[in-house]
Amino acid sequence: MNHVQQLNRLFLLACAPFIGALFWMLAMQTHISLPSLAGSPPGGVAAAGGIPSATAAASQLDKARASAGETKSVIEKFYQIYEQSTAITGDMLKVAAVQAARPAAIYDQRILAKLGQPIRSASSANIDLKLFNFGDDNYNGYALKVNLKSDKAMKLVLGKDKFGSAETTLSAASRYGAVAGVNAGGFADDSRGRFPLDTTIVGGKYVNGFFPSRDGTAFVGLSTGRKLIGGNFSSQADLDKLSPAFGATFVPVLLKNGDKQPIPSQWQTSPARAARTVVGSFKHDQLLFVVTNGNDESGNSGATLAELQARLQRLGIKDAYNLDGGGSSSLIFDGQVINRPSDGKLRPLPTHFLFFR
């Protein structure tokens, strides 16, 4: 039920007693007894043929006028009460809206206290984006906090909108007119092209079927309710229960319900450090995308997954997932490449998360 429907329903409930009282008073007070044609009314003098006297008729008219005046007064009082109740209800709704927004605002302030001041931002009826510097002594990068306000705010797209094709995140964002973009799932190359890794959903449809999780692979995406969903799934039915709107696949899961998940040994050492892209959600469902820099693919620069896992947990992230990293890590904002790609330039990729004003 939307806000307009809620308001209409509240007005109907508030006014029902007054409307009922009005109908009752109208029924009780507007009844006029017509004089009898068979004889003289009490207190009157009958004229020829049994017609009521002028005095009796005038008395009945006076009573009718008095009754009509009282009814008019009741109606005027009803509308005064209605206008007063409407004003009071409007004030109550304003207060309720402020009170409802207060916990989210307080929570936002706590997040900002940990992330610092944003270096860039964008806001519209669809989305609020805030970009932050993000790092510590061992790595540096950026964090993009995303508050999705509508279903039009975010989507997953294929490279050049074709299965097996690839393009940079900057190219995809430019084609779609997106305000920001982040690389998404992993990929596999063959002689036919560059294909998304395993389960990929675009616009609510499976691009190439469902693939059960293997070797820790995890689906990562958004539900139709704009909530971050993901994890290991053995059947399509299990994933469908979460109503996925879009998403891609990579490895591993970092946090579930605020708890650290085991990081597979190969992802602790191969490479130990790298450019990374991870995504997480706060308890109020806002998203945080983190993209860290790495100088090259040697494993000697960038962040470890354990470092990012611990940092996200301290920030109050509820669920978090690793996305494709290394040379794939890409962060675009307002038509500019924000991160430093470890390949020295952006890598063409088969899937991208895009954000819209």
TrEMBL record:
It comes from the Bacteria. InterPro entries: NAGPA. It holds the Pfam family NAGPA. Residues 176-356 form the Phosphodiester glycosidase domain. PANTHER family: N-ACETYLGLUCOSAMINE-1-PHOSPHODIESTER ALPHA-N-ACETYLGLUCOSAMINIDASE (PTHR40446:SF2). This is Exopolysaccharide biosynthesis protein. It comes from Gordoniibacillus kamchatkensis.
